[in-house]
Records
---
Amino acid sequence: MDGQHMYIQKVQYIIYTVKWHVLLANPDFPVLIRRQKTFTEVDVCNATVLADIEQFQHTLYDDLRRAILDGRVNVELDDVELVLEPRADDYGVLCSYYFVHGPKRCLFWLEEFDARGVLGDCKGVSALSHKRLAIEAQYWKHRDLFPVLGEVTADLVSEVKDMMLHAACDHLSSTRSTAALSTDELQSYLSLVDKIDVNTPFRCDHTVVILGRMMHIFYRNQYLNFHGQPCARLSVDQTVHGWRYRPSKAMIMLAPVLCMAPVAHVRSLHRSFVDNIASTVEWNGFIAKLNGQLQNLNLLVSQFFAPVH
């Protein structure tokens, strides 16, 4: 085992047996689940590949059992899910994986894991409480991709609604809100969540997808804005790292000639892109304003150069 990967000899694709069930929550990407709560997106069509996949599964679950017995991992085995993603490389079949623990809303690995892909471009992340937000965001992304074992509870629906109402209030009471969605988007999403019936006797994985996507958006936004940290970003244009825009000499000399319009646009652009993180709401507003100004300019030019009869 190397890091979070294991190698076997190069093989082809997988088999379908009674141990695996096809899930069609997303018709474009059928998901296969085994009775031992193991997910994979590879096609189960070849007995050789199935044996390789189950070898990964058995090895990883055996390692997890030993880690639990040794006290290195504090989870209940029945609460754990496993996701396998095999792919071929020059050494054979490389199998990436992660474990999921639903009660704690987290992903985990049995070896030291390079989490730069999970933490993304957010710089200055050091506190475990801050990293936990990124991991929980990935957990909800997992629920979006693999909803079959997710639960729709009244508490979860209430949590999603509370987050959406808080974000909507933040937009109404602040001109520089850090909310991930615009007011119109929040109203549209809230209308969807209001239609969720937690008392229905039928199971619907699509409802799990809706809640998973919303929770991923909000927790990812909390992570990017350093939620709960001493340096939390309280307004969308606030920098966490102390950076501020300083115009160049060329901008200082040429801007007065153009009625200071370039400085205004550059400052608006930097408010949409703070600490190398883009704000979708601010960016959309910036583009809409810029398009409006260009349309007005085109109208003015067309009127100015219109032929005189």
---
Amino acid sequence: MRSRCIPCGRSFDSETSLKQHKRASLAHAFNCTPCNRRFDSEEALQQHLRDSPAHTRSFDCDDCDRAFDSEEALQQHLRNPRIHQQDTETPLDVFFRSFPTFDYDPSLPPATSYANLREHEGWRRSSAASSDAWNRYQDAPQSELHMWYGAENDLTAWHALCRAVGIEPLPKTCEQCEEAVRRTHVNIVDLIEWGRSGSEEKVQTFRDVAELRAYTKKTSKIFRNTFDQEGGNVVLRHLLRKIFRESL
């Protein structure tokens, strides 16, 4: 029984001859024009289009020139405000640059910059200038917290906090995020420095309040706690009040 090629109308002595005809004939070629490659079947061509890196659709971020494999990955990237705020002047930057003769280096930790500023200005601890600068310096980190970690009803804010303390995979709801970070002990100044640095390494966490308190005293990374402020910031509402309930 002869084997017939339906598209061509030609007949062949065997199935093998028919298959060879389909492979060799340009009439039956399944071509990938961008790659200049031919395939034996529509299925093989479609598999090539799905799997070949040359045909992987790129989802690009116009702001930072990065590409992602899926729309979901791009959207998750866009929801991370740290990545798109690295060149933004922050409240701490504004504070330090208000001293025109001070050589400010934004890459340094804020506590180090303040110590350098105090030495540069020659402030005495009890002077009016020193007290005014200290109060302004303490106000800046609170504004900066809101910049890097927003409101508690904002999933983006929760995800920023989860990234900072190394929670993976990212929870899908604000409630799940709150549950994940509930027992986290972390220094608030470290969280601010993480936001400023753009580091991918997680912030150091501690087993309990006592261990955190010892670290805070040793490093002098003290975040002034004023509980009279409202605003629902995710860090202030869910970490600061729990961790600094006892006096430093």
---
Amino acid sequence: MTAMKAASLAAREDDTVEKTINGGTPWYNTTPKVRGGRRGLFLITSGPAMQVKTEFEEVLAMVESDLFDFVIGFGGSSTLPGFVGSTVLAFIRAAAVFGCTDVWKSLCDLLVTNPDVMEHTTVIAVYACYVDGKRTVESREVAKHSTHRALGHKFSICGNKGCNSSMADTISVSVVENMVQLTCGQCQWHSAWLPANQDNDHFLLVKPTITPLLFWHNFPRSPRLHKLFVDTVSGDNAQEGSRKKHTLHTNISLAHPAKLRRLSGTVERRSSEAIGRIEHGL
């Protein structure tokens, strides 16, 4: 591991510039800085390493201590290699051919063009990046929105305080057009309808124009993320309450998720009209 780290750092500091025989820039960059310099770890079947807090702290420490530049794992408690192996190999091939200077962008580009793996599991990436010249570590999970996972997450908290739905696993997902609602099968609680094709405070679309069902969120998940549907006001003022507690955003940058923009009046009006049609049974 020490030798790998030394070779990686040497590759990053290489300043070789390749030119063609005519003095142009070649389409294939073989310099050490592009070809090497990234140390990665893939956890194929170690779901607990990502889902158990004490285990995940060890994974996070490997990136924070600069032992690895990134660690990519999967959210399933027991992920079959056959389901994720092709995705891992595709990432390695893409990194070998095109380089991997931006781990997050490379991963997103791969998942939007090879989304089949998201049918079986979620993808968790812990990676180092540089912001204003300072090394920082990000941890994110990518998941697919479906009738089993609202916005890519399996919610288990009911809006009624006395209900123990989290123990009975009775929360179901209803999807109508581009709206999603949670229902508790134990006490029949219904959440407000939320847009499933827009960003919100916790769930951000990976690439909305290409794969509108793929969302990412910070990992580990915050307590507020688990209560997104519970904290959103239902009824006639659902959209207004949603804007107050969970402001919706659009056009999120992959590299800078903090730069959020407010929805335009047109999008807000359409969301309100959609909620009105759903709640009146139209």
